[in-house]
């Protein structure tokens, strides 16, 4: 039986300088064979450009529907973006790097389909109260509920009333490489 590769997931915050520092430290520790970054796999076609000395953030990947260019998705990166430093680390170390997510082509097609499904039938009747969105009181959901916001739960357990402040204190302002991610995961 073949050896099973160890998978290490680094939970980061986009454009978090502390997350970016920790990603580099963790990658130096783990020395992975492959780096996968959250983002449209269409970006794989241009990832090698990130190694170019002339390529300096801020930059953004752009994926769009050629037949209707207004339907587009941007993937911005700054020098302090964990995605940027992970890709650059991989390219510098000769490690395969790929973007992994739902292909943008599918998302753009879904968006296009939804745009064309919306129609006004002239009926102004009230269809009842608005439905609660996924962000409504997610920290109060039961453990194991897919609607629960784990960051809000961790923040509340640590005595913070604001998950953003907890993240800044617990993650962005701390050093620690791989250990930081084990605590958050």
What would your notes on this structure say?
- It is a single chain.
- It contains six helices and four strands, in the order αβββαβαααα.
- 35% of the residues lie in helices and 15% in strands.
- The longest helix has 14 residues, at 17-30.
- It is of the alpha+beta class and 185 residues long.
- The strands form two sheets. It has a two-stranded parallel sheet with strand order 1-4. It has a two-stranded antiparallel ribbon with strand order 2-3.
- The two termini are 29 Å apart.
- It has helices spanning 17-30, 82-92, 104-117, 150-157, 163-172, 178-184; strands at residues 34-38, 59-65, 68-77, 96-100.
Task: List the keywords.
globular; two-stranded antiparallel ribbon; alpha+beta; 6 helices; 185 residues; two-stranded parallel ribbon
Structural class, judged by helices and strands?
A: alpha+beta
Distance between the termini: 29 Å
Task: Extract low-pLDDT stretches.
Answer: 119-136
Q: Oligomer, anyone?
A: single chain
Strand content: 5-15%
- Average pLDDT number: 78
Give the H and E element order. HEEEHEHHHH
Largest beta-sheet details? 2 strands, parallel
Summarize the structure.
The protein is built from six helices and four strands, in the order αβββαβαααα.
What's the layout of helices and strands?
Blueprint: H1 17-30, E1 34-38, E2 59-65, E3 68-77, H2 82-92, E4 96-100, H3 104-117, H4 150-157, H5 163-172, H6 178-184
Parallel strand pairs: 1-4
Antiparallel strand pairs: 2-3
Helix pairs in contact: 1-2, 1-6, 4-5
